Amino acid sequence: MPKVIKKLTRKEIEARPSVYATSSKPEVRNDGNGLALLVYPSGTRSWRSRYNLHNKRCDYIFAKYDEINEIQARERNQQHQALAKQNIDPKSYFNDNKFAKSLTFALIAQEWLEFREHEHRKDKEHIRRLNKHVLPKIGNISHHEITKQFLQDNILNPIIENGTYEEAKRTKTTIKQILDFAIDKYELIDSNVAEKLQVPKHKVKSFPAITEEHNLKDFLKAVWKYEENHPRSNLATNCLLKISILLALRPSEIRCLKWEQYNKEENILYAFASKVDVEHPIKLPRQAIEILDKLEQHKKNEYMFPTNQSKPQPLSEGACRTVLKKIGYKDIQTMHGLRAVARTILDEELGEETKYLESQLTHKNNDRSRGAYNRSKYLKPRARILQKWADYIDALRNDENVSRFKPVENIDAEKTLDNIIETVGVEKVIADLISNIGEDEILKNIFQHIDKDKLETYLNSKK
């Protein structure tokens, strides 16, 4: 019966070396299953695996006690024994993989970023997420030691707990892409541990927005008076905020506009609609043209709304947020919410057709049968709507009567017909009636209520 070797205790491991130990023949303290601790006179302790390979006894000194403890050493020794049974030399196997172990997540991330160097804008956000959430936690860890649970517990869950679900989702994507890069380039791991990371779905909250006309008036006054009250404020920021109100583009689409996207002769702005991935032509209203003319007089570089820095770059997302905060609308109105303002007022108050509004906002069309987004679709009606919207904004902030912009049915019901005609004009009333109930119905009602002799006399006088 083979002798049973008891596992070493911590006291036995750390005991002083034997007086008989020499540098060439250290003291051997057996731990069982081929594992032993070699203790040298200097006090250095090293772990050794002994195994049979091709009917020969082999020794492999694989780590110092200062580097790995007895529990880790036993796990490594089990790996060595398993490899030897498959006729694989553990020493060769682990030496060949030293390069793999030296590849920390930070080094691979740096290689990945260099590979993607041409995508500056996207990489800026990847770098921010790496520096903020990822590298402090796993930067110095070898990629093959990273586990799904560690990523979930230490990186994603803290982000999720802050309520920033989209940030968690994008951080997961960044990690996954880097590990995919490591798999493709080095073929060192078989599967991507980031693949099954969990980011729970959350209820989407609408961006805060003013959708009532009486509240919108005060907001518009505050925005247009800000530059007057703050003469030293940034011109580009003030113009960006006003243009955003007038055109209802996504903040990222308008903030990064370049002068080359503006056809001044035709007064058309070619914005890039990021959600549908196409160029989106916009016939500018008079007020927007005036703003761009003012901006062009102070043109600094290729960006319409540049920073004051020497390096050409667009204003940050926080520039207009700062203005909104200063005028008292921090939690009341957001930049993205300006699109909801235009959409709601144009629909509910000004009576514009939904299909034109959706086209101007470049919302995705979920009906596949209608085909891909048509970049020039509804250009003329959209131009009319934007001019009407800009005129309405001017009238509202200047305390003018805005009834002339509304269909008759949206005008205050308490007003008499005389009041309505006085406000919007008889031609407007008739045009809206024809639009809503049709010419035949109007003529039918006229003939029911009008003196036929007077009508005949009137028609004869016009011959």
From TrEMBL:
Molecular function GO labels: DNA binding
Where in this chain does the record put each Tyr recombinase domain? 205-391
| Keyword DNA-binding attributed | yes
Q: Do you know which CDD domains this protein is assigned to?
A: INT_P4_C
Residues that span the membrane, as ranges: none
Domain of life of the organism in this record? Bacteria
A Pfam match is: Phage_int_M
Protein name according to UniProt: Tyr recombinase domain-containing protein
Organism whose genome encodes this protein: Faucicola osloensis
The lineage, from the top, is: Bacteria, Pseudomonadati, Pseudomonadota, Gammaproteobacteria, Moraxellales
